[in-house]
Amino acid sequence: MLQTTPRAATADGYDAKTFYDGLVAHGLIVPVGVPGVFGRGAVFEDVLERFNALVSDLSRHDGAEVFTFPPVIDRSILERVHYLDSFPHLCGAVHSFFGNELAALALAERANAGGPWGELLAQTSVVMNPAACYPVYPSLAGTLPAQGRLVTMLNWVYRHEPSPEPTRMQSFRVREFVRAGTPDQVIGWRDMWLQRGLDLLHSLELPARSDVATDPFFGRGGRMLAAGQKEQKLKFEVLIPVISASDPTPVCSFNFHQDHFGSTFGIKTADGEVANTACLGFGLERVVMAIFKTHGFEPKHWPLAVRERLWK
Ligand code: ZN
Question: How far is the CA of 186 from the centre of ligand 1 (A)?
Fold first, then answer.
């Protein structure tokens, strides 16, 4: 009888399953039985919080307002930004039960028997937040001060992308900044952060590089949107090899929205023009995984300079 062998790690030492198993074996993540969802161990969280603190430290003189939002947002935000036109496959909408006692019995019976029960629920007014910055834009409505505005937040993000591959999560945290102002203010800020982000990751001795990128738009129309986005250089990512050398993992993304959110949410510059916006976000779990992939699963064996940078 032929024996099937497990898929071998690639010659360059990158393999999603081996990396996932290593994270689990070292107590860094805790499987919960759903692909793309897992618990985080204490050491994983410590590294994540310390990296986030480095980001705060770098930006402490930038004058950012600090906001915190829950993992759910007003459903109408997704509708106003036409999220479903581009990313219907990633959306997570919250549904709940609105029926009477009889219907509740039917619901419980179905669920207890292991049958499908989703059709007995109805849509609520909230959706899972699919982009850390979305809840910020409605709060910027009105006229900005002459210097524009800068907001930072650390939000949980949901994307329906179940996968056994550890860097592709259904729920994760993004440390994000949103800048609103004139095109010059916004682009200058974005370019400053592109270099600052690279410098930060290089200071942790990570092999990070930046590249022009596209969003994972849905369907055939999506390919045209992606082509336009690339041509206009609206999105950049910082990439680090985590599970593949040839296809490195985006750990940070920089998005220039032009006047898209400004016109949707009524954000104006001091001189009455529609404001431009840009955002940048560090995928915190991905940064942490990149550190463990690059330097090993045990922080005590990391290069001294990396340890000192994080635990100074
Ligand atoms: Zn954003």
Answer: 13
- How many angstroms does the Cα of residue 130 sit away from the middle of ligand 1? 10
What's the whole-number mean pLDDT along residues 122-146? 97
Centre of ligand 1 from the C-alpha of residue 128, in Å: 15
Q: CB atoms < 10 A from the CB of 31, how many?
A: 12
Exposed (0-12), middle (13-18) or buried (19+): which is 107, by Cβ within 10 Å? middle
Q: How far is the CA of 129 from the centre of ligand 1 (A)?
A: 11
Q: What integer is the mean pLDDT of 81-89? A: 93
Centre of ligand 1 from the C-alpha of residue 188, in Å: 17
- Is the pLDDT at 8 greater than 50, yes or no? no
Tell me how far apart the alpha carbons of residues 294 and 283 are, in angstroms, rounded to a whole number.
16
Q: How many angstroms is it from 112 CA to the middle of ligand 1?
A: 40
Q: Region 130-148: what's the mean pLDDT?
A: 97
The CA 308 to ligand 1 mean position distance, Å, reads 30
pLDDT in tens, 58-84: 999 999 999 999 999 999 999 999 999
Tokens of 192: 């400053």
Distance 50 CA to ligand 1 centre (A): 22
**0.90 surpassed by pTM:** yes
C-alpha 120 to ligand 1 mean position (Å): 34
Q: Where are the domains of the chain?
A: 7-91+130-310, 95-123
**CATH superfamily of this structure's domain 7-91+130-310:** Bira Bifunctional Protein; Domain 2 (3.30.930.10)
Buried b (16+ CB within 10 A) or exposed e, 296-306: eeebeebeeeb
Q: How far is the CA of 16 from the centre of ligand 1 (A)?
A: 27
In sequence order, which residues have a C-beta less than 8 Å from that of residue 166 and are 6 or more positions away? 16, 19, 20, 23, 29, 38, 243, 289
Q: What is the mean pLDDT of the chain?
A: 94
Report CA-CA distances (Å) from 39 to 44, 45, 172, 288: 10, 10, 11, 14
